[in-house]
Amino acid sequence: MSYSVGFVSLGCAKNQVNTEQMIYLLREAGYSISEVPDQVDLAVINTCGFIDAAKSEAIENILLLAQAKAEGRVGKILVTGCLSQRYQSEILEEMPEVDGILGTGSYSDIVEAANRVLDGEEHLQFFGNINETEEPQRILTTPEHYAYLRIAEGCDNHCAFCIIPKLRGKYRSRPMEELIDEARSLAASGVKELIVIAQDTSRYGIDLYGERRLDVLLEALCKIEGFTWIRIHYLYPDEMSDHLIDVIAREPKIVKYLDIPIQHVNDTILKRMNRRGDHAYLDQLFTKLRDRIPGLVLRTSLIAGLPGEGEAEFEELCDFLRKHKLERVGAFVFSPEEGTAAARMEYPPTEVAQQRAEFLAELESRVIDEYHDSRMGQKELVLCEGYSEEDEAYFGRSYAESPDIDGKIWFTSETPVAPGQFVTVELEDVVDGEPVGTVCEEEAL
């Protein structure tokens, strides 16, 4: 008998890669995979447990699956990922509808877990070595034109506010030869945009080779035919060498878009949070990046309400944003995560942190408006992702928009444009915060 399995994948792109690996393993074992966890024998929910908002989202989705199970639309439920790694006993005790849980070191056990749950066993727990280096094959769940390449797992930074090292283990780089082989396979399958990810991509190689080799890896990836864009996410700010910056600047395939999470800029807060570097270093780094990489779009993430943040420290953060005008900013409210050093420190009230995060978002919205205004009249290369019947327009992304994060570019064309096709679009207006334009037919690629 062939059982059906449906997936819910929550959290970051790194989590999505684990979901893709589980899909591959189950499909190889003879399971049929459903696009949605409805009318299936088994529902697998791969969770995030990083901050309160992610935990709440995971719990809400588990409860929805529990309701579907009660209605007979789902047979069994397996919970995997960071939430199950973090709350191993609580999930089974408080959610009896859940039939089994797998931790972050047990993704490769998904077939055994599925078999045993469907055979009638209950309350199964799989918790393998979170420092395991095995990297199974995967079935892509992204659109055909882009894919993630996870170059490492785990994290060694141990920021005071972050639980990830305890959930994902120590930093483990994948061998470069293995990554190149996977990238070649992705390019051969039609992937146009390769998105390089890890908890900290800039640390790549230090555990395997005794030195950071992200620059060497990027140069090798750029030689692979088929990719038009190579995008880098999650560069830790103090690990960016001059040679790495040179590679990013000179390689045409590497999009001039960098995601560099800084969290804050105040020296005292950064030190308490175990972040390396200080305000002066971040100021110099962002200035240097702007000078050496023309057209650079910078993304960062910030945390409002960190321990030690008063009005003066918050204003210092705002002044930094006003000066550097970062095009993409995610502002989050400090979440005191149990098991972290920061949770034991004194921090501003949540309502104050929420107000500050909202102010940061408002401040950033003005920067984005100015940035979009500066793009009007320009011709930009856009990767088409689809067509909206309702809006009667195509939508896609330029180098300045990362998928599922930064919004879209909307455009019209006199000739059909297929998803995954690159076109040149002249930007003419901004509607509801997103650029709108028209395909330049004579320059379409």
UniProtKB/TrEMBL annotation:
Binds 2 [4Fe-4S] clusters. One cluster is coordinated with 3 cysteines and an exchangeable S-adenosyl-L-methionine. One of its GO terms (biological process) is tRNA methylthiolation. It is an enzyme of class 2 (transferase). Residues 141-370 form the Radical SAM core domain. One of its GO terms (molecular function) is 4 iron, 4 sulfur cluster binding. Its cofactor is [4Fe-4S] cluster. The keyword Transmembrane helix does not apply. Its main location: cytoplasm. Keywords: 4Fe-4S, Cytoplasm, Iron, Iron-sulfur, Metal-binding, Ribonucleoprotein, Ribosomal protein, S-adenosyl-L-methionine, Transferase. GO terms for cellular component: cytosol; ribosome. It is found in: Cytoplasm. Residues 373-441 form the TRAM domain. PANTHER family: RIBOSOMAL PROTEIN S12 METHYLTHIOTRANSFERASE RIMO, RIBOSOMAL PROTEIN US12 METHYLTHIOTRANSFERASE RIMO. Catalyzes the methylthiolation of an aspartic acid residue of ribosomal protein uS12. This is Ribosomal protein uS12 methylthiotransferase RimO.
